[in-house]
Amino acid sequence: MKQIQRITRPYGLKARFVMSILTAAVISAAAFGLMYFIKDYLVVSHFDNPNVQSKIMNKKVTSLQNYVSDNNLSSTDLSGMKRWEKKQPLILLELYDEKDLVYSSYYHIDGVIEEYLNNKTGLGDRNNIYAIEFADKTLSAVMYMDISYKAFILGSAIVFMLSIILFILLFVRNNREIINYVVRLGKDVQILEGGDLNYNVTIEGNDELTDLARSLNRMRESFREQLLTEQELHSANSRLITEMSHDLRTPLTGLMLYTEILESGKYKNEDELKEYLDKIHSKASLLKQLSDNLFEYAVDSRIARKNTSEDFETVLSQFANEITSELESAGFTVEKSMTWEKAKIIIDRNLMERISGNILSNIQKYAEKKEAIFIETVYSDDYCGISFVNTRAPKREGDSHGIGLGSVRSMMEQMNGTCSIEQTEEAFETVLMFKRK
């Protein structure tokens, strides 16, 4: 099998994919940096606003006051504050009784809180001091809160997701032609699967997918040629069997005719009896040869041909005389005009006998008996041959199937010759031309 040479391309599918990934990655990274900067700027600008800070802090103080009131906490029992802190992970809280620190999110009240308390200098001048009413007294609360932390985290996640989406969109856009081509090839393959082997697979570009499309087309054409070859072989087989069957009928008809003559005793003398017996033997020999050919074809799937070079006059005079004798025996009148040139022709004796039977059968069936049959030689530069002209009898519907003359054409082609037919309403001419050697 012929090997298809692979084409090496510096910019094939792999290179295109790598380039598209790198391009999309660079653009997405640049967009990520720009959006991240814009996000930081917007968050800082928003949360640096004192009104925003005050609003958020007041909301948290209200939440703390509601928690203290709902749980009826006192200034001497601040252990419940831990539960509120867990719900507020970004808040640090200090509680003061006047200027004394009594609670801090940094430390537990027991243990290390004493060292921390000793180092504290009191509330001092602070703006983030809020009064929280406990069950027994009011304490001062100082809150430290990163109010922009959640906004930074959420903004970073949004920027990252937008960058990923941008990367995917850029990658798809850079490869949309490849994707569309793959989809189109899929549809083309479905059409081929449906049995339409005349459909051409779309060929675009000059990459590995293009090579695949060309390979699909070559495979399609190869498969179509294989199917056509199988169909032609099947048709040839059917045609040969039909021709052989038709050829078998011709000598059988002759045999029946001669046996009827002998049975009825219509021969004139012993010489005529011997002549009829010789013709019966000749027809029987032809039947045997035809049956042998058919057997050879069944065994070997072909019929061995034995084309030989022979003298034109020797072969065609015998051929014409045999047909003339048969026609005259059947009651036809034959007029011959034979001129001989020195020439060698390519023939097969077995095929010539079959051609003779078909020509004879065709004339006997469709020629007008009252009119003469004309047989004459024909010449051209490269060919020499013989023609048969007869007047057509009134047409009988359903008689002619064209099998005999089709068989003659086929056998003449096997001997490198031709069979041409010309007909009018009144006359029918068959010309056999043999190739000069």
Characterization of the model:
- The chain is an alpha+beta fold and 437 residues long.
- Helices cover 57% and strands 16% of the residues.
- The chain is built from eleven helices and eleven strands.
- It has a five-stranded mixed sheet.
- Helix 6 (176-193) runs parallel beside helix 7 (208-264) and helix 7 packs antiparallel against helix 8 (270-300).
Widest sheet: strand ordering? 6-8-9-11-10
**Helicity, as a percent range:** 55-70%
Beta-strand share of residues: 15-25%
| Cα-atom radius of gyration | 55 Å
N to C succession of SSEs: HHHEEHEEHHHHEHEEHEEHEE
What structural class do you assign from the helix and strand content? alpha+beta
Number of helical regions: 11
Query: What is the number of independent domains?
Result: 3
> Can you summarize the main beta sheet?
5 strands, mixed
Q: Roughly what is the average pLDDT, rounded to an integer? A: 81
Number of strands: 11
Shape: rod-shaped
Question: How widely separated are the two ends?
Answer: 38 Å
Low-confidence segments: 1-7, 109-117, 299-304
SSE order and pairing:
Blueprint: H1 13-47, H2 50-70, H3 81-86, E1 91-97, E2 100-104, H4 113-119, E3 129-133, E4 138-145, H5 149-174, H6 176-193, H7 208-264, H8 270-300, E5 308-311, H9 312-329, E6 334-337, E7 344-347, H10 349-366, E8 373-379, E9 383-391, H11 403-414, E10 418-423, E11 427-435
Parallel strand pairs: 6-8
Antiparallel strand pairs: 1-2, 1-4, 3-4, 5-7, 8-9, 9-11, 10-11
